[in-house]
Amino acid sequence: MVQLTIRRQDGNTIWYETFDVEEKPGMTVLEALFQIQEKQDGSLCFRYSCRGAVCGSCAMLINRKPVLACRTQLSAVKSEVILESEKEEILLKHSSKDESKEDVLVEPLPNLRVIRDLIVDMDHFYRLVNSIEPWIHVSEKTGYEENIIEPSMQIQIEKYTNCILCATCHGNCPAAARDDKYLGPAALAKVWRFCLDPRSRREDVDKLTSQVNSKEGVWGCDVVYKCVAVCPKKVPPTTAILKMRENTKSKSD
Amino acid sequence: MIDHDIIVIGGGLAGLRAAIEAYQLGADVAIISKVYPIRSHSGAAQGGINASLGFDDSWEAHAFDTVKGSDYLADQDTVDVLCKEASERVIEMENWGCNFSRQENGKIAQRPFGGAGFPRTCFAGDRTGHNLLHTLYEQVLKCNIKIYSEWLVTKLVIDKGRCAGCIAMNMADSKLGAFRSKAIILATGGYGRIYQRSTNAMINRGFGISLAYMAGVALEDMEFVQFHPTTLLGTNILITEGARGEGGYLFNKDHERFMSNYAKDSMELAPRDIVARSIQKEIDEGRGFPGGYVHVDLTHLGKDVINERLPGIRQISIDFAGIDPVKEPIPVQPGQHYSMGGVSSDINGRTPMPGLYAVGECACISVHGANRLGGNSLLDTVVFGRRAGIDAVDYIKLIQKADGDKLIEAFRQEEGRLQGMFGGEGGNFASIRDELQQIMQEHVGIFRNRKGLEHALDEIRKLKKRAAKLRVQSKVKVFNFELINALELQGMLELGHIITIGALAREESRGAHYRTDYLERDDGHWLKHTLAYKDVEPRLEYKEVNIGRFTPQRREY
């Protein structure tokens, strides 16, 4: 048996609840959550879809780290030690916890409003990403001629198109935590993806570049690489932000 | 009442492509999806999308491979359209920003795929679906198309013999909404999760297909279920055909490249039905590894090729099986992957119900026949998604919106039905689902026979009775997954029932439908499509296959 201690929320009521889960080899935290939802408490809610770390639905905080629940093996987190002092405070208040059992702490992704249990308001995150107008403009008729793109450029762009918009980066970002207008790592990485792409029109790149040349944009970043550290797809937003800072500097020089 | 000219149900590739087309042609179009569009299962597609871009390839060659792969059950007029329009659609996706992998000369790269006489599968690493989905989603954002995200459609409303809208539940507060429209485009994907072992996302329960069936629309060729040869042992996450396309080998426990015994010319790149059966046979006859699997070995390809062409496969193997394919072979077994069958629809996505369209995996157009070739499903979504968008825009110009009385009546009925699903004790969703999955896997899987299918039919009938008594205990309004599960379970059982009945009736082996008691294809009796209609028990009828330039011949690889 493994214990999952889950931060529950319904309206303004917040509580921590502990569930025993029967562990199976290779079990992920997402599977453990399903076991609870299906066999113990049908009211528990969380988002899911692919269960294979490609759709980005199940980002949450597991032992205080933003991760995809489907990609997190129970065996890897059950005996993890959480150093932060606040954890004890939470768990002391919670009486049903059995200290002799291995325990996993599951909470909603930070920096986004909780709707219920582990479901957060992703619309805020999507609005930030969509505000940069993340698309290629094609005015002429499509489907007739392919663009020629160097394989090396394709590989550079791929680093950023690998983003699945799961928002783990947003949940780990200190700038996003203090400023809800900050575009955040995912949106800024996407800006750079479109700046790199030879299919973007010059005027769109210029517009993007000036749009992010602000404290809500590239200058809001603390450059602490917390987004890079948690990205399940190894996207490096901080690298993108630094490149864009250089670009805006060299322009104004 | 919410009004739109056209409502697209489903936010995967087919749905998004249909919506873009309808928008560009000036229609008021909205998308309803039970998940935010980029969470759709299209994003999990790995290997690629077919198009005869090569100067020495042709759409006719692509069509031949598709028809032969389908074991001659595909309608050849629709296959022609699929293959003719392929290049334009793929190049369009490139123009919209899809980050396809490239050749040295900067053109779109192509890899060999199963059952294809030419390397015509375009790809973006092994994350082709993800790249296509995000690209289309970006274009949907650009069009500013209204999306009702996390709404579950519970009923299609038919008024005076045509589809006049739908009733949907907002998952965020469990409230129902009545959507009035002139046309509905169903693009809700497959039903993989009625099987125990499936590559499909957890959300793929076939609910959209069951909605059309409940509305009286025929489902076509549902007994044709594709089992992918290589799914990761344990989670059954897809290991792309591209792994073999890039040169991976299949080995049994005696380190024999056993495909030489089944398809000596094509080897690992025979079509999926053949490779899946071969693997299952190796396992069943004791030449698999204990636990029921074989190996797909990529180690000889080297780290660079794996990192460049199959990085997602490497990551999946490490994350979910603790195995690095650079150093070790990947343990794989066959698993349910795709539905060739679906809502009966034509060359423009029209179903027999006026005002209702179906495209993508939820539809049976039929371009895949008895067995789909790898790389043709992504193509199917964009080709027929677009065509349905065009046709729907033409259609809505000709008709008036329904007055809405029928819609209000349906809304009240749905409210009552949902209320009635709450209550005290009354069975458990998960146990009924688990039993259904186990029955389908064991008796309606890769190898089928009369005895097993009859047993499955009995069991499914019992499960349906149990499901009727299922009651939802959680009263929460905000994201009540117990309610969603109970609703969708009814659809899963209907589909299981239809697949089984169709499989029992079809006394031959064709493509993915393999009867151990009828080993041969029987064109004399069975070169025809199955149609299943709602009745006390699903009622079967049959219709002719459109045969064009390719006369059925024996299928060898």
Structural summary, described in words:
The complex is a heterodimer of chains A (253) and B (557). Chain A folds into two domains: 2-119, Beta-grasp domain (Ubiquitin-like (UB roll)); 122-252, Alpha-helical ferredoxin (Fumarate Reductase Iron-sulfur Protein, Chain B, domain 2, Orthogonal Bundle). In chain A, 38% of the residues lie in helices and 15% in strands. Chain A is built from eleven helices and seven strands. Chain A has helices at 29-39, 74-77, 86-92, 122-130, 151-161, 168-171, 174-178, 184-196, 202-211, 226-230, 237-252, and strands spanning 2-10, 13-21, 59-62, 65-68, 102-107, 114-116, 119-120. In chain A, the strands form two sheets. In chain A, strands 2-1-5-3-4 form a five-stranded mixed β-sheet. A two-stranded antiparallel sheet of chain A has the order 6-7. In chain A, a hairpin with a 2-residue loop joins strand 6 (114-116) and strand 7 (119-120). The relative contact order of chain B is 0.17. In chain B, helix 9 (302-309) crosses helix 10. Chain B is built from 16 helices and 21 strands. Chain B has helices spanning 13-24, 59-69, 76-84, 86-95, 128-143, 207-214, 242-245, 272-284, 302-309, 311-321, 376-398, 405-420, 429-443, 450-468, 481-505, 523-526, and strands spanning 2-3, 6-9, 29-33, 49-50, 110-111, 121-122, 146-149, 151-159, 162-170, 175-180, 183-186, 219-220, 225-232, 249-251, 294-297, 330-339, 342-344, 356-358, 363-364, 528-533, 539-544. With 557 residues, chain B is an alpha/beta fold. In chain B, strand 9 (162-170) and strand 10 form a beta hairpin. The chains are: A alpha+beta (253), B alpha/beta (557). Chains A and B meet through helix 1, helix 4 and helix 5 of A and helix 4, helix 5, helix 10 and helix 15 of B.
